[in-house]
Amino acid sequence: MDDETKNGQDNESNPPENKQALARVPVAKLPADQVNKPSAVDDAATAKAESAAKPILPTRQAKPQAAGADDLVETSMEMPRRVGLTVFILVFVVFGGWAAIAPLDGAAHAPGQVTVKTYKKAVQHLEGGLVGSILAQNGDVVEAGEALLEMDDTQPLAQLEIANSQLVALQAREARLLAERDELTSIDFPASLSGANATEEVASQTSIFGARKASREGSIEVLQQRIGQLESKLVGLAALKDSKIALAASFADELEDTRALLDEGFSDKARLRSVERNLASYQGEAADLSATIASTEVQIGETRLQILQLNREFQNEVVNELGEVQTRLKDAQERSTALQDIVSRTTVRAPVAGVINGMQVHTEGGVIGPGTVIAEIVPLTEELILEVQVSPLDIDRVYEGQEAMIRFSSFGNRTPTIFGSLLSLSADAI
């Protein structure tokens, strides 16, 4: 009984794996010499005991059925285990391979802000001045070229009027000088001087042209008259010279005859001396007339030279004045163009279509300094980008074209992450 109890305790402490409860069957102990010699009674008792134990103990025929049930349970439990083990191995292999190959340098965090790709457009006024009227406010959507502000144009218009008056005067003066240079009989004024604002200047230059022309022509006429007088004198001197020469020739013939008569004794020496004196006198007068004629010719040449010099001086004066006028005219044209540009800028217009932001002018009649930013316009059609500040410590981790994950801190955590790429890096720290 002690052995059976011990065996029973062993069986209770170590149940079979199929967790089925098995009954314990008591077995009588036989002497050792009778173990191998069963009797008929023993056989009957043994058979009776085996027959009584059949409902409880599993027989050799029932054991295969229990094993089959265990196999089914084991098969149904092994399948998930195998799948899980396979998945675990695959994940471990893939992740391990990726961890061994992929460079894990870490992420470079860079705060930034959203802006348009071409940046906000600043609206400025170059010259500044007094504010006339305000035509737009913050938040207004404007088109390109739409008026935002009207500046007071009193001073620019006055300066432009003065510049235009100077321009008209110089243009009329240039036309008059060109006519004088080319020795025209009238002035050919340009079409730009056909307006009412140029009438007075055109009349003034026409009068100056006529007066200068008359003065020059009068001076030339005086000189030409002098030349005429000298030429007339020259003709008279030439005729007188010819007569003196003729008389001298006559006295020369008479002198020869007188000498012949004196040789023959028909004349005296007094007559001879008288003829010689007359011949010498007429020859001297003819020589004086030749000198006078030469002097008169010189005077005529000098007078003609005076006419040429008068024309030359007049032309030099005209050319010099024309060069000065044309230089001033060019400056006046540029100044007029600049003032027209200033007047056109008295209306401040939007450079691009967009939304007005940061309007700085709110007082009509206020003063705006030169180059002051009046407002900013955020373009509507431009592409949006992010400007971020990368730490200098992370500069070796970023490069152009690198993929970036973007999160907006102003939104909730449920806002999805968007992806982008790095367009460019600044050459230096900003």
From TrEMBL:
Tell me where in or outside the cell this protein is found. Answer: Cell inner membrane
Query: Top-down, what is the taxonomic lineage of the species of origin?
Result: Bacteria, Pseudomonadati, Pseudomonadota, Gammaproteobacteria, OMG group
What is one term from the GO cellular component aspect held by the record? plasma membrane
- The residues covered by the AprE-like long alpha-helical hairpin domain are 158-341
Where primarily located?
membrane
Kindly list any coiled-coil regions of this protein: 272-335
Topology in the lipid bilayer is annotated as:
Single-pass membrane protein
By what name is this protein known? Membrane fusion protein (MFP) family protein
- InterPro entries this protein is in? Beta-barrel_AprE, HH_AprE-like, MFP, T1SS_HlyD
Region annotation (Disordered) ranges? 1-51
Ranges for the AprE-like beta-barrel domain?
384-430
Q: What is the native source organism of this protein?
A: OM182 bacterium BACL3 MAG-120619-bin3
Is Cell membrane given among the entry's keywords?
Answer: yes
The record's keywords, sorted A to Z, are: Cell inner membrane, Cell membrane, Coiled coil, Membrane, Transmembrane, Transmembrane helix, Transport
Q: Where are the transmembrane segments?
A: 83-101
GO biological process: what's one of them? protein transport
